Amino acid sequence: MNNFVRNTHKLNKHYIGRLYSQVVTPFEVKAEQGSCVNYDKLIEQFGSDPISEEQIRRLEAITGKKPHHLLRRGVFFSQRNFSDILDAHEKRNSKVPPFYLYTGRGPSSQSMHIGHLIPFIFTKWLQDTFDVPLVIQMTDDEKFLWKDLDQKTLRTMTVENIKDVIAVGFDPKKTFIFNNFDYMGHMYRTVSRIQKSITTSQVMGCLGLTNSSNIGKIAFTASQAAPCFPSSFPHIFRDEKLNSKIKCLIPCAIDQDPFFRITRDISNKLGFQKPCLIHSKFFPSLQGNNSKMSASDGMSSIFLTDTDKQVQSKINKSMSGGGATLEEHEKFGANLHADIPYQYMRFFMEDNDELERIGREYSSGRMRTMEVKKIAVELLLDIIKGHKQRREQITQQTIDDFMNTSQDKWK
Amino acid sequence: MNNFVRNTHKLNKHYIGRLYSQVVTPFEVKAEQGSCVNYDKLIEQFGSDPISEEQIRRLEAITGKKPHHLLRRGVFFSQRNFSDILDAHEKRNSKVPPFYLYTGRGPSSQSMHIGHLIPFIFTKWLQDTFDVPLVIQMTDDEKFLWKDLDQKTLRTMTVENIKDVIAVGFDPKKTFIFNNFDYMGHMYRTVSRIQKSITTSQVMGCLGLTNSSNIGKIAFTASQAAPCFPSSFPHIFRDEKLNSKIKCLIPCAIDQDPFFRITRDISNKLGFQKPCLIHSKFFPSLQGNNSKMSASDGMSSIFLTDTDKQVQSKINKSMSGGGATLEEHEKFGANLHADIPYQYMRFFMEDNDELERIGREYSSGRMRTMEVKKIAVELLLDIIKGHKQRREQITQQTIDDFMNTSQDKWK
């Protein structure tokens, strides 16, 4: 970090994103021309910290669980106060949850793509590992304010996306799913307290908004911030006196960090703990590792509703890191970083040894592109098949159980 | 209106308030130095219309009721599309309400002052005259965002103010009272639609907000706008298909107009009728006719909780329009416009002949200041006594009846 950046950082950390040539906000991800997002630089830019080897070792030691492959492989790579969560777990007692998990989804498409599963898969692992309550926010209001979608369409999308979330396998006894349009009544007092603490220029700087932005966009940060505080869930955290002590851990893609940076700035003032975060990298598009998969671009995405044939065809046409000719491939090997089928394996293949073997063989040129694509197709078809099967089991009663506002969601 | 003003008015009617030396927004009332608010100029400034003699005559003709003294005496003096309301009443059928009434109160003090009764007294008369549903919004969120008050204090203030509102004598079968903190859940979809249609610069220009205003203030207009549209009250307006046709009439003090000017601009776009308005002048403070009574200034106000002695003492010390000496008084008579006890009679004395007699006698100097003050004290004590008696009858059940969200509020 040079001196200029360091000083500016001190002056106003919200604006700092703009000093870098890569721009990452919840609404815009722009890498430096022709290259991928530089995640080391992003950590510096945002002022977060890398996840350390020591933290991963400690997590394993205190939970007795092998760290998730998304953690070991650096897909989740950045954090804020993650050690506080490990502390809380160590000091836990059975009366109150040591912390709770909060993640979410903006329902902007009927079907989710495979990349959308990543934070949920990891969140499920965190819930299973730490045995804590989890709240999942569907930001239908955000999508309404930012996209050209009407509320009726959004209602359908929200229900369909909730089914996809549930199909990841969460425990309904400890998981509360809510959508802002319907839950705002329970959250509005907390939302107002947050709104009162944030100035218009703060959100403008942090989210890239302007005077011509609609007033809902200006206010929205408070909707996404509110679930960081236990007062938003009186049916889960019934003893108001403990609200100032309960921590929250947010697993999310790093582009959501600006919302929580603002939230962390005001948490103590409002009498709450700062939310802790654990950030993932973006899930790459079929076209290559320098853009993220986007549900609004059908060509860049594999959807959870795609047929086997569609998945196969999309993977076959996806960006390859193999040599241009067989000769070149055998001579130089594959570029794993640029190879989308291999990258998807890094996200979804649980077997570490097998992934290493493929990486070794493929990068040396001994394994061919078609073979790697075939393995990737099989892996993804398996993931999608399992997902579809679990999704079909979901009834209205299942949904109601997850969205129930009178259930405790804690043992 | 000179040409410069006229053209600017066309360019952006929201900003026009700032071109005049008197400033009137919901948060600031500033007359030109040393003088009273110029209401004729305000009509020009805001682009509303005066209430015409013809409208008052027509109201009497179609309802068969003698126009309320607040209307006859020009306390309610300005309007927007009031004739549409008269049209709707004439064309009414018994199946749907021809329109509904909407008014409100920002609960920023434990006790309301006598001036706060004025819009409610007039609204009750409108409800009795037109036999329509009425919604009353308590903007506890507004007061939270603007004032240094916590939510617990506001909760008490809101309940106490609701009791004062109920004591005016509304019909619980046709009146729905709600506070934003608790009702937002029912209204948030409509609020979001409004937020999506208003830009940040629009509210900044219209309400005098800036980039350092908190984001709740920027968004708040949508809370106050939402009740203008029937979709905010699904328990009252059950047939969604009629929502685009139902009109709303808002009786309020003129300083609230900026919110509704913004609302009127977006109503048609959202598929609703523009709200119609009928505006009152400000209720003068004890110190004189050039400032309005303010509950946060105990010295300027007579509260509904004041004792008889307090009322008497406050009126006796209030600004008088009588002559400085008895000799001068008998020679020049009283200045009725500057005389606060007389002005309060204009607001509260129903008997027109008696008010005229007092005005004649006092302005000619035949009646003395102490006599006028005595009449004013008796009148106000009578008002406050009746209010206290009705207020004492209010039980939790009464409040619940008014705030019930499952009751029809229409025959």
UniProtKB/TrEMBL annotation, chains A, B:
Enzymatic reactions: tRNA(Trp) + L-tryptophan + ATP = L-tryptophyl-tRNA(Trp) + AMP + diphosphate + H(+)
Question: Which CDD domains does UniProt cross-reference here?
Answer: TrpRS_core (cd00806)
Q: What is its EC number?
A: 6.1.1.2
Q: Which GO BP terms apply? A: tryptophanyl-tRNA aminoacylation
Q: Name one Pfam family in it.
A: tRNA-synt_1b
> What's in the keyword line of the UniProt record?
Aminoacyl-tRNA synthetase, ATP-binding, Cytoplasm, Ligase, Nucleotide-binding, Protein biosynthesis
Q: Does the keyword Protein biosynthesis apply?
A: yes
Q: Where in the cell is it found?
A: Cytoplasm
Principal place of residence: cytoplasm
Per the record, its GO cellular-component terms are: cytoplasm
What's one GO MF term for it?
A: tryptophan-tRNA ligase activity
UniProt-listed NCBIfam families: trpS (TIGR00233)
The protein's matches in PANTHER family, at most eight in alphabetical order, are given as:
TRYPTOPHAN--TRNA LIGASE, CYTOPLASMIC (PTHR10055:SF1), TRYPTOPHANYL-TRNA SYNTHETASE (PTHR10055)
* Protein name (Swiss-Prot/TrEMBL): Tryptophan--tRNA ligase, cytoplasmic
Give the organism the record lists: Acrasis kona
